Structure formats: C-alpha cells, structure tokens
Prior knowledge:
Blueprint: H1 2-20, E1 27-28, E2 44-49, E3 55-60, E4 63-68, E5 74-79, E6 91-95, E7 98-101
Antiparallel strand pairs: 1-2, 2-5, 3-4, 3-6, 6-7
Amino acid sequence: xxxxxxxxxxxxxxxxxxxxxxxxxPGFARIFDDHMVLQRGxxxxxxxxxxxxxxxxxxxxxxxxxxEVGADGRWLVTLDALQGSAEGRALTLTVGEDLFEL
Length: 102
C-alpha cells in the first residue's frame, strides 16, 4: 500500500511540474529544422503547436495539407508519400495568421 501511495505521489508531482512548464510556441515541433531529410516512399507526419482552434496549412513541394490545432494546442498533418529528390524544397506552415518556413 505504501508503494502505491509513493507512486501516486510521484505521478502527482510530475503532473504539477508539467503544468508549470511554459506553453509551446506556435510552429513546427523542434525535430523539424533547416536541411532536414524527409523519408521517401512513406507518408510523412508533420506536427507542432499553436493556439487551439487555429487553422493549419502545411506545404511541401506540390502538396498542401490542412488541419486544425486541437484543444491541447497540438496539431498533426500527414504528407502523402514522397518521391526521392536531390533538390532542396521549402517546408512551410501557416498556423492561424503566423507563417513559418524551413
């Protein structure tokens, strides 16, 4: 019983700490950065943060995917499978009125 209380107490402490962390800035998740390489031949999930309810538009090459920021401040869209290319391309994101480009 003592062990269960200890685990519960630890989980409550972690939850309280997480609640004090600053909100994520709108935009791409940190994994997305300049000069990154995206997987070819497979759908590519792209995610990040924004203000709940904001429209999200991700553009890459000839693809444009839309989504919406959820109540938790997160969004996710999935690009269709990509063909290989040695040509650099911009990955752009619009969250509400904010524009981000990699």
